[in-house]
Every structure is written in structure tokens, then in C-alpha cells.
Amino acid sequence: MRLRDKIAVVTGGARGIGQAIAELFAKEGAVVIIVDLLPQGEEVATAINNTGGKAEFHAVSVTDKKAVTQLFADVHTKHGKLDILINNAGITRDRTLEKMSEEEWDSVVDVNLKGVFICTQAAVTYMKANNYGRIVSAASNVGLRGNFGQTNYAATKAGVIAMSKTWTVEFGKYGITANAIAPGFTMTDMVDKIPKEHIEAIKASIPLKTAAQPIDIAYGYLYLASDEARFVSGICLTIDGGTSR
Asked: What are the alphabetically sorted keywords of the record (predicted)?
């Protein structure tokens, strides 16, 4: 098992890529702390525990600094350490720049960027104390190349990449790595409202001629969270079927 006895916090772990990460990490031996506001997170944790894994669910918003700080303190008290932080929680509020409201801008920045800042700030205290840590945050290939109607989303994902590179410099001496993953088009709940013909057009534009499944992205997280990636830090791993070539 590649994550045996590791304590891993996965934000946004109730569905989609986050759920795939939580389930895969549990199979690889980690104790998974699922953080999400969606009640399905409890079901994911229960399913993991019922199949021999170890998981907990905590209904906490990544934008609530006080609650996040308390959560990480509680995790450390209970488990004695914190090894892995997966900053996966994220939202979209798509609209062209001219039509985008300030609320749509603020809500995406609050979750996708500030939430990553809050969670990582809370986590590194415990990682530094143990001279060990793996921080892997959700970027997007949109953060590398932009996308129509996603000024807010693209800005936050580019920011996540920049923050990860900064944390590499700040925390490397404590045995902490910081990386980002930039998924491409992935078949999650976020694409449910997209017309089928548009989905097919997107698939046709991808060199591999198919969309990613959540598990495809989860395997990238597994690598960067494992000891196999001991000397990998400050990178953005793009998993998009060749779209960002």
C-alpha cells in the first residue's frame, strides 16, 4: 500500500474527483478525512469504512477559517499527525467577463483560491512539526490556457499553481512538497448540464478522443501524495489527454 497509515485530508471529497481521491487513498492504506458541505460525504465515508478502509466525514466549509483551524487541530489531536492535504474543493460560476457579477467573481475566488490558502495555512503547522508533508492542490488546464466564460475560474486556478510554487520554496526545508494538478475535461457532476452534443464536440477536440474519468485524475494525486514523489515539488501535473500540449 502506497499510503499506509498516512493521515490525508481531502477537501471536496463528497463527489466527483474528490470522491475518487478519497476512495483510492483509502484503498492505498490512508486514513481519509473527507471535508465537504455536501451530505453525500457521510455516505462516501461510510462506504469506505464498510469495505475495510478508514474514513471520516466533516461538514466544514473551506472558506470558514475558524472552523478549518479547529478541524485540523482536532485531526492532529486524534491522529497525532497530518501527512497529506488535498485541496480539491472548488466551484464554477461561468459567465463572460461583461456579464459576470461581482458576486460570481467573489464566490469562485473565495472557495477556489482563498479556501486553498486557509486550509494550507492550517495544515502546514502540523506538517512542519513532523518534518513531513504532501500538499496537492486542484488547478485546471483552464488555469494554463484560459477558457471562454471562465475569467473567475481561470484566475483562481492560475493562482493555485503560483501558490504551490511559492510553498515549495517556503516549506521545502521541512520535508514538505507542494504541487498542483491541472485536469482537463472530466466526467463529473459539473458537466451534467452540458448538452450531449457539446460534450461530444469537446471529446473530439481532445487528442485521445475521450474525456477523463475521476479515477484518471485521482491516480495523479496518488503519485504526488506518495513517497514515490519525494523529490517532486513545485510542478503542475497536467492530466488532460493532450489538450494542453
From this structure: Oxidoreductase
- Residue 242's region, left for phi above 0, alpha for psi from -120 to 50, else beta, is left
Q: What percentage of the chain exceeds 90 in pLDDT?
A: 96
Domain assignment of residue 1, yes or no:
no
User: Quick one: pLDDT at residue 235?
Assistant: 98
Is the CB of residue 134 less than 8 Å from the CB of residue 164?
no
Indicate the SS3 state at residue 33: strand
As given in the structure block, the three cell numbers for residue 144 are 494554463
CA distances from residue 74 to 70, 71, 197, 225 in whole angstroms, order as listed? 6, 5, 47, 22
Q: Residue 165 sits in a domain of what CATH number?
A: 3.40.50.720
Contact between 2 and 29 under an 8 Å Cβ cutoff? The reply is yes
Is the full-model pTM beyond 0.85? yes
> Of 126, 132, 153, 221, which is the active-site residue?
153
Answer yes or no: 174 catalytic. no
Other C-beta atoms within 10 Å of 25: how many? Answer: 29
The answer to whether the beta carbons of residues 124 and 75 sit under 8 Å apart is no
Amino acid, single-letter form, for residue 130:
N
Report residue 118: phi and psi, to 5°: -60, -50
CA 91 from chain center: how many Å?
11
- Count how many Cα atoms sit within 13 Å of the Cα of residue 225 in the half-sphere of its side chain: 35
